Amino acid sequence: VTEQADEQGKMPIDWSQPLLMRGELKIVTDNRPFDRSMVDGRKKVAFSNEILRGRNVVMRHWRQGDRFHPFGMRGSKLLSDLFVDLKLTSEQKKAVWLMEADGDIVWVLGYRAAQAYVVAPGSTDYVLLTYLC
Questions:
Q1: CA 66 centroid distance within chain
Q2: Is the Cβ–Cβ distance between 59 and 9 less than 8 Å?
Q3: Which of helix, strand or coil describes residue 131?
Q4: Which tens digits make up the pLDDT trace of 45-97?
Q5: CA distance 17 to 128
Q6: Nearest one of 62, 70, 53 to 10, comparing CA atoms
Q7: Is the Cβ–Cβ distance between 77 and 68 less than 8 Å?
């Protein structure tokens, strides 16, 4: 992530560069068959390699009205509702990073991954992301 956000507060991701923010985001592409025990859905997530192929992927902060489709849940959820469930303060909400791909929130870093870009068990076509905050 570049340190320069655009006028909308979005920071484009260049997958060939280390992603640095307040914490650090580590990217690993691995040839091992994927197993759900490799991720925790909060600080360590996996997405199919489709996310790497010509997608507009950016990092940004929460905005009122943001909604996403959490992994393992039917339908969508307002991020403000997720933050209430997590009992986050206003300051904590403002500090949360989101990963957005083509306008859809795919990960609330450190808290919850979305249903998008699901990796099938046994697949070797995925990227593993770890948020080291």
A1: 14
A2: no
A3: strand
A4: 999 999 887 678 889 999 999 999 999 899 999 999 999 999 999 999 999 99
A5: 15
A6: 62
A7: yes
What are 51's two structure tokens?
């996310």
Structure tokens, 133: 């905050």
DSSP 79-131: HHHHHHHTT--HHHHHH-EEEEETTEEEEETTTEEBSTTPPPTT---EEEEEE
- Quick count: other Cβ atoms within 10 Å of Cβ 75? 8
Nearest to 53 by CA among 7, 101, 119, 113: 101
pLDDT tens for 3-58 read 566 666 777 776 666 555 545 788 888 779 999 999 999 999 999 999 887 678 88
Output the pTM of the full model.
0.84
Name, in order, each residue with C-beta under 8 angstroms of 51's C-beta and a sequence gap of 6 or more.
57, 101, 106, 116, 117, 127
- Beta strand 104-108 with 19-20 is unpaired
Q: For residue 48, what are the contacts with CB-CB under 8 A and spacing of at least 6?
A: 117, 118, 119, 123, 125, 126, 127
